[in-house]
Automatic annotation (TrEMBL):
Species whose genome carries this gene: Chara braunii
Compositional bias ranges of the Basic and acidic residues kind: 334-343, 404-418
Bias (Acidic residues) ranges: 422-432
Stretches for region Disordered: 84-114, 253-298, 334-356, 404-441
Keyword field: Metal-binding, Zinc, Zinc-finger
A GO molecular-function descriptor: zinc ion binding
Domain annotation CCHC-type: ranges: 5-19
PROSITE patterns: ZF_CCHC
Name of the protein in its database record: CCHC-type domain-containing protein
Length: 441
């Protein structure tokens, strides 16, 4: 800190964080100079006077800051109330406007409906008026024709009376005119009768058309009534069926849920109209890949057997091609012991190598096969399936054992045959040796 506090004069803090009250707020304002009485005595010397002390606590509510805060709060409160009042007034105005708009739209809609009704009424009334006028016009035309004919007849009669007066003067001319008038009257009467008949026929045709239309209307009404009656019967029948089905379902449910019922259910026959669904039976057939694998396996087995046969033939040739008399005598004396002593280790080693090769070959074949193919192989060879890899290993071991047993069996047979042949050769050699010994002796 560069200097001391401006408020209390103490070092270590500034006036903003001073714990004492601010002197600038508590001191009397110098704007108004107070009136003082003149001092009669001289002021005491300032010697010996100490520095004024200030209380080490805050003054609560004694400064202008609190009053300023209160005034600001009042102003803010009044502003908020005014704002809320304005918002409420705007909201009310908007609601009133919406209601007026809705009422106006409703009034317009009613007016449009009224206009539509009036227009429809006017159209219907115009059509009815035209129909009535057409019907009444036909009748009035007939009446007018009759009235016109009556007037003509009266005029002719008057003219005839006037002409009769003139005929007293001129009888001959009058007779002719009288005849003409009679002819005209007859013609007029005939025309009147024809018009009356035509009007009668027209009226009869219109009445017949109206009657026909009424009969058709009655027939259509009767047909519609029959159809409605049939539909009502169908609906009632369907309702009865639904009610019967619901009643039967409820009865079945109550019987099934009965505590004394055996197995908690009721034996129900098959539903009518349904067909039994049978699952199709599928016979498993080996895939072409498995067939080709089996063929390759059989070919490899044949090749291995051929190699074993050639190997055995080579051993027989090497064993039977010796010319040493001692070895032949030893073989003749004890052939089994010599064979066991000379070839025990070699035969066991060859067996192990052959078994290893067979196992490797079978593992290579079964390496890429999936579960379905392994299951088919298990069914064919009678191997129990546990999991994929152990089952493969079991199949490999069984195949190796089977093939190795076959090879051993064949080798044993071939050995027996070779032993018999060697024994015969030894007998012949012994006879030759006996002859030689006898000659030498």
């Amino acid at each position: 800190m560069r200097g001391n506090c401006y408020n209390c004069g103490q070092p270590g803090h500034i006036s903003r964080f001073c714990p004492l009250s601010d002197r600038r707020l508590n001191d009397q304002s110098m704007a108004i100079v107070p009136v003082q009485t003149p001092l009669t005595t001289a002021p005491a010397s300032a010697a010996g006077t100490g520095v004024p002390t200030y209380p080490k606590q805050y003054t609560n509510g004694g400064g202008w800051l609190e009053s300023r805060v209160r005034t600001l709060e009042d102003k803010v409160g009044r502003i908020l109330t005014k704002h809320e009042e304005e918002e409420a007034r705007v909201r009310e105005a908007k609601e009133e406007e919406d209601t007026r708009k809705r009422e106006r739209e409703e009034e317009e809609r009613r007016q449009w409906e009224k206009l539509d009704r009036e227009e429809l009424h006017s159209k219907l009334s115009g059509k009815l008026d035209r129909v009535c006028e057409a019907i009444e016009g036909k009748k009035s035309n007939g009446d007018d024709d009759v009235a016109k004919l009556k007037l003509k007849i009266e005029k002719l009669q008057k003219a005839q009376t006037g002409k009769q007066v003139a005929t007293t003067i001129k009888e001959n001319d009058g007779n002719k005119e009288m005849a003409k008038l009679k002819e005209q009257v007859e013609m007029l009467t005939k025309q009147f009768a024809a018009t009356a008949s035509t009007s009668g026929t027209k009226d009869n045709g219109e009445s017949e058309e109206i009657a026909r239309l009424r009969r058709e209307q009655v027939d259509m009404k009767a047909a519609a009534d029959k159809r409605f009656a049939a539909l009502n019967e169908v609906i009632s029948a369907l309702q009865r069926q639904c009610e019967e089905a619901e009643a039967s379902a409820k009865a079945w449910k109550s019987k099934a849920l009965r505590p004394g019922n055996k197995r908690g259910s009721v034996e129900v026959g098959p539903t009518p109209g349904t067909q039994a669904r049978n699952r199709p039976r599928v016979t498993s057939i080996g895939t072409p890949k498995l067939a080709t694998g089996a063929r390759k396996e059989s070919e490899l087995e044949i090749e291995r057997l051929k190699e074993a046969m050639t190997h055995l033939k080579m051993e027989e040739r090497t064993r039977a091609g010796g010319t040493n008399l001692k070895t032949k005598m030893d073989e003749a004396a004890c052939p089994t012991a010599r064979k066991d002593k000379g070839k025990g280790a070699s035969t066991s080693a060859t067996k192990a190598t052959q078994r290893d090769t067979i196992i490797k070959e079978e593992r290579r074949k079964l390496r890429n096969l999936n579960k379905e193919k392994i299951l088919l192989i298990c069914e064919e060879e009678g191997v129990p399936y546990t999991t994929l890899e152990p089952t493969k290993e079991d199949i490999v071991q069984r195949r190796a054992k089977k093939m190795f047993n076959k090879d051993e069996h064949k080798k044993e047979k071939e050995k027996e045959i070779s032993v018999l042949e060697v024994a015969e050769d030894d007998g012949e050699d012994c006879e030759a040796d006996d002859g030689r010994d006898s000659t030498s002796s």
